[in-house]
Structures are given as C-alpha cells and as structure tokens.
Amino acid sequence: MSAVISNSIRINVMVDGGERVVFICRRPTAQELSNFLNKRFQTKGTRVKSQLYEAREALIDKILVNIEGAEYEDAAGQVKPLNNQTVLSDQDKSHWAGILGESIDSWRDLLPMSWKSSAAMTFEDAKPEADDADTDERAAAKN
Question: Tell me: the pLDDT tens digits for 23-37?
C-alpha cells in the first residue's frame, strides 16, 4: 500500500543485467518540482534547447538521501557497497575523477546519469494510458 504523505520516497530503478537499485529520496517540495519541470527545456525565440538530463540530475542530487543495492570499486580494486555511509578516500576521488572526467566529491557523484535520470522520471508527468474499456466508451460516445 502506498503512503499518500510520507517523508521519503523509494524509487526502484532497473539497472544493467536486470538488477535493481532503490533510490531513497526525501519528498521534494512543490517549488522544487516546479523548478525541475521548468528547467527541462529552455526556449529562446523559436528555438528549444533540451536541458532534460541536467535538470534530472540536479533534482536527484538535491533530494537523494540514500541508495540500496549499489556497489562501487575503490582505487585499490575492491568492490564495496555504495550508499550514504560511503566515505570516499582522496585516492578514490582521484581515481574516479580520472575515469569519469569530472570532479568527484561524494558517493552521489559515482551514480550513473542513466540511473539518476530513471529515478527523476518518477516526478515527470506520465502519459495517460487508456485501457480497452475507456477506449470503447469514447468510441461509443462519438457514435
């Protein structure tokens, strides 16, 4: 059963090989959601520029409090759990910065963009799916 009001949201994300990780996020505020939805696309005149992935990453980085089912490889090659208790050594940060090509400051920075994007899609408007009965009712109403 889903809680209508709770402090956290658990988001299942399917990852490589059919495995699953769980993003544990605090509930975003209405303003945070509005900002996220508005920052996905920028318009300048008649041009539309997608900022979709940047907006998704920013939202998840802001509201993510923990993750379950994730692991990382440290600079020495040892596989370890990745979660909010993970403290990266300077060697780990340097190692991953060299691989990913960007600054690594915390455990969140090791999460792939595709995982963050999948989790953030939870907060986007879903395209409503009509079931067969609904489609049949609409067709009958037109006749």
Answer: 999 999 999 999 999
